[in-house]
Design a protein that fits this description.
It is a single chain. By secondary structure, the chain is α/β, with parallel strands linked by helices. It is 43% helix and 12% strand. The strands form two sheets. Strands 1, 2, 3, 4, 5 and 6 form a six-stranded parallel beta sheet that branches. It is globular and about 50 Å long. The termini are far apart.
Amino acid sequence: MKNEEKIPFIDMHCDTLMQAWFRLKRDIYHFPSAMADVQRLAQGGCKAQFFAIFLQSMRMKKILGPLMQKDDAYIETLMSTFYRTLKRHSGVLAFAGNAQDLERNKREGKISAFLTIEDGRAVRGRMETLEEYHKKGVRLLGLTWNYPNCFGHPNSTNIIEMKRGLSDFGKEAIGELNRLGIVIDVSHLSDGGFWDVAELSQKPFVASHSSARVLCPHPRNLTDEMIRTIGEKGGVVGMNQNPEFLYPGSQENRIEDLVAHLLHIRNVGGRECAALGSDYDGIDGKLCLRGPQDYQKLAHALKKAGLSETEVEEIFYKNVERVIQDVMR
């Protein structure tokens, strides 16, 4: 790989901001105890990274107790870390909120940083909060995490829960998210919620960090029908590197697992459907790609599996670029 030019990549999901909160770091340029930081993004050839604000789980509340921040304060803290990093390292990293920003940053040799929220519970059924998030730079919203909220219901091993769809507010919010130019993310959503989004959204939507259920029957993964629908709607599926989403019961992922899921997503959803969504800093296990600095190993493996450089580029960044162009403003 040393003599090959790096293929730029866009990763649709990392939880590095959350890890920074836990470790009391307010700058993620150099963050060696995390899976990802700005230095390693640059080392790997990153074109853009989506940085998630993951709302803390009930389990975290039990562990942290009185140290736990309320959702709104927590979101502001992570936003502060995001923007502080951008300001301190403006020669390397820059905010992006649309395709024009992405292109400008590319010309200036900078990595684009997109801000996202994972779990819409802090919206609390208030439509005006969505506009507030947009003004603060949020360009992608994961409607749920693993608990019900004002948008609807999460993925679940409970068949009844899995069939439940969006709430009345959630259904109404789809149109508002489309209007604002915030990408709708169905990772973590129930199957019923997925189909509500598919019916209601007038713009492409994504699963930012999910894999293929037919290859690994985990409820966080997508059925072939879902993958096909996302492709038909112009969206993408960012393959998650979590071992348990790639191979049943595994605590280790292999490069062949990553390739298998990407090729399956591509074959089912079409060439424009497959993308990357590592979930770095939100996953455990032994990983074949230790972080973004190793993404070129995946590019090499995809070429070895028979894809042309143009086809690898589609998976690595071009497909997500199209969604940014079609949805964000």
